[in-house]
Specification:
With 334 residues, the protein is of the alpha/beta class. It has two domains: 155 residues, Alpha-Beta Complex (Quinone Oxidoreductase, Chain A, domain 1), CATH 3.90.180; 150 residues, NAD(P)-binding Rossmann-like Domain (Rossmann fold, 3-Layer(aba) Sandwich). Helix 5 links the parallel strand 10 and strand 11. The radius of gyration is 19 Å and the shape is globular. It comes from Pigmentiphaga litoralis. This is NADPH:quinone reductase-like Zn-dependent oxidoreductase. GO terms for molecular function: oxidoreductase activity. Pfam families: ADH_N, ADH_zinc_N_2.
């Protein structure tokens, strides 16, 4: 089958479209004919080697986490899906590879495609929506009336997280550039900070939850936004020892994570703030709940551009440039 692969880690790795063996089907797997996939910053970070301590992939590696497509075969232990079903999923760690014609995904990580979405729209959803869900619902347990600050509101995670936070009844603030202010307001943001002209730490105060997705400068700014006793949750790091222990990483790696997060944890304690790192996981059950929100019109996908499978390298470069509004999609079946 055709697939987009990289041969080694590195920011200069352009990658290439090549022929690779079709994925092997395990007993609890669903084999999906990929109609569309989407790009996430996680794809560029894995290519660059940023997560090789946590996710040490073997090379050559087929990139891609998000998929929407048709089931073509199921393992003998699969009961929820059958050939011909339209599905979407975030591929499992160590079994990624959606920039390809086929992928095998565990049954428990697959959800039925929302009936009101195209394949391209459905492919834009899984990773970012699961991230937003696992931060806002699973970790923060956001309640109606709480104040939530979501960084980078025009990005893939931010554009979905704003909609989910509003659905949970929260008051939502976000950041974006001047040209996207009205656009993120239309997603539901109550307060929009123009990061090119305004200082977040001076504009926002006493927020219950902050979803941090940017760099160390923004992480320190966020500490001054959170109300004492409340939560700062990062999806971009630094990771904590608790995270490493939950993933059952080796003790030396747990110690490394402890050292990496020592500074921010110390600052958070000083301000009475709880700091946590979330690295999202695949979940078909959560995707089913998210699909219901999409079918009801509560959450809608946001797509910036669509690229062909032979243009994945260009799509990765576009996402890494930071100019995309919402998601960038790879169309595998025209």
């Amino acid at each position: 089958m055709k697939a987009f692969t990289i041969d080694r880690y590195g920011k200069t790795q352009v990658g290439r479209l090549t022929d690779v063996p079709a994925p092997a089907l395990q007993d609890d797997d669903v084999l999906i004919r990929v109609h569309a996939a989407s790009i996430n910053l996680l794809d560029t970070k894995i290519r660059n080697g940023d997560f090789k301590l946590i996710l040490p992939y073997r090379m050559p590696l087929v990139l891609g986490h998000d998929v929407a497509g048709m089931v073509v075969q199921v393992g003998p232990r699969v009961s929820a899906f059958k050939p011909g079903d339209a599905v979407f999923a975030r591929a499992d760690d160590f079994r990624i590879g959606t920039f390809a014609e086929f992928i095998a995904v565990k049954e428990g990580s697959v959800g039925s495609k929302p009936a009101n979405l195209s394949m391209e729209e459905a492919a834009s959803i899984p990773l970012v929506a699961l991230t937003a869900w696992q931060v806002l619902v699973e970790t923060a347990k956001v309640q109606p009336g709480q104040k939530v600050f979501i960084q980078a509101g025009s990005g893939g995670v931010g554009s979905i997280a704003i909609q989910l936070a509003k659905a949970l009844g929260a008051f939502v603030a976000t950041t974006t550039s001047t040209r996207n202010i009205e656009w993120v307001k239309a997603l539901g943001a109550d307060v929009v900070i123009d990061y090119t002209r305004q200082d977040v730490a001076k504009e926002l105060r006493d927020y219950d939850v902050v979803l941090h997705s940017l760099g160390s400068k923004e992480l320190e700014q966020s500490l001054r936004v959170v109300k004492p006793g409340e939560q700062l949750i990062s999806i971009s790091g630094p990771p904590t020892q608790e995270f490493a222990a939950a993933r059952r990483l080796a003790w030396p790696l747990q110690w490394v994570m402890r050292l990496l997060s020592r500074g921010i944890r110390k600052q958070a304690r000083r301000r009475g703030v709880r700091y946590a790192f979330v690295f999202m996981h695949a979940s078909g059950e959560q995707l089913s709940t998210i699909a219901s929100l999409i079918e009801s019109g509560t959450i809608r996908p946001v797509i910036d551009r669509v690229f062909a499978l032979d243009a994945v390298a260009d799509a990765l470069a576009y996402v890494e440039s930071g100019r995309a509004k919402g998601k960038v999609v790879i169309q595998v079946v025209p």
